[in-house]
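Friendly challenge for the regulars: who can give me the structure tokens for this chain first? No prize, just bragging rights.
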Amino acid sequence: MKWAANIGFIKDNQGHVFWDKGVYLERMHEKFADHVTKYGLSFGTREEYDFRFQVFLKKENDIINLMSDVHEGGKYTLAHNRFSTMTDEEFKRFLGKKPELQKEKREPKRINDTNP
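First reply, four minutes later:
Bragging rights claimed.
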């Protein structure tokens, strides 16, 4: 998240402007708690909670920056989703084929071929 120290405010991804960093962080903790509830997340330790909160704040900052870049064009909207507390490495596991399918090599089938 970016704190505009020279200006003294910060904005969340919904356009709310906060003139106090403490108020902004309080709002982000509330938003994070709602996110955790919505996606049924739980964290085993306070350290894990704090780590995931920092990941969430980074995603919030990414959303703000990307939305400000495309706001004029209005082509799409970004928001938090079930991946918002995952690191980039954790998210990469969701990309591509399932591991069991990646190992399997298939020979192309021949159609109407009389010679095997």
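The first strand starts at residue 10 and ends at 11. The radius of gyration is 21 Å. Your move, everyone else.
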